[in-house]
Specification:
With 220 residues, this protein is an alpha+beta fold. The strands form 2 sheets. The protein has a 3-stranded antiparallel β-sheet with strand order 3-4-5. It has a two-stranded antiparallel ribbon with strand order 1-2.
């Protein structure tokens, strides 16, 4: 489609070039029409926001006021109280999080990103909609073949930061897989505990069967 390309070109001149000229000391990130501008304090942020609002109006554009907000990047060094300390960008949630110091291996409060709740819910909904726990005519290899490309994509993208935050997603997946085992194999007589033991045995014998098993996300 040519429309997104033209929109991107328009914003390059309407926003990128303009901001670089008017506020050369500020850093910003833009992906399509999603934009983050880094300011030094609240007063500067409010001034820049109003300038952006005016600039877009001059270009016959307007801000999405519901999504636009000033966020305080709170961490161990920035301790002031502020109403909004979290934002989502490109499927990730940026907010204060416990972070490990890479040098001293000591935990501290950092401002870091991980998969957002919205993205997490979307993936879980994707898993649930397949209703693969009802695929009683299939074996576990077909399930792996179907899901592995999706799982690999989720891990490659969202696992780039705080990969362990994907654990909830794979817990849901394993719950569904457990249900599939109970429905598929009558010898378990509806016992989810025994089904879980069977899955763990498969994971031990064939650790590469599912992509997420290779990353340490195995059934509890």
């Amino acid at each position: 489609m040519i429309s997104p390309l033209l929109a991107n070109l328009f914003l390059h001149y309407a926003f990128d070039k303009w901001l670089g000229k008017v506020y050369p000391h500020l850093r910003f990130v833009r992906y399509a029409d999603d934009i983050i501008v880094h300011c030094n304090n609240q007063q500067e942020a409010e001034t820049v926001l109003e300038a952006i609002r005016t600039r877009l109006s001059e270009c016959k554009l307007e801000l999405n006021e519901k999504k636009t907000k000033i966020v305080y990047c709170k961490n161990a060094k920035r301790k002031a109280k502020f109403k909004t300390i979290q934002f989502d960008f490109l499927g990730f949630s940026f907010q204060p999080r416990p972070t490990m110091n890479r040098v001293d291996k000591v935990m501290f409060l950092g401002f870091d990103c991980a998969i957002s709740r919205k993205s997490e819910k979307k993936i879980i909904e994707t898993i649930r909609k397949t209703e693969f726990h009802k695929w009683t005519n299939s074996d576990i290899y077909r399930i792996a073949t179907y899901f592995n490309p999706k799982i690999e994509g989720w891990i490659n993208y969202y696992g780039a930061f705080k990969k362990r935050e994907l654990q909830k997603i794979f817990n849901i997946f394993h719950q569904r897989l457990n249900k599939w085992v109970v429905k598929r194999y009558k010898r378990f007589k509806g016992c989810h505990r025994k089904a879980g033991e069977w899955i763990r045995q498969i994971a031990q014998n064939q650790p590469t069967l599912f992509v997420h098993w290779q990353h340490g996300f195995q059934s509890a």
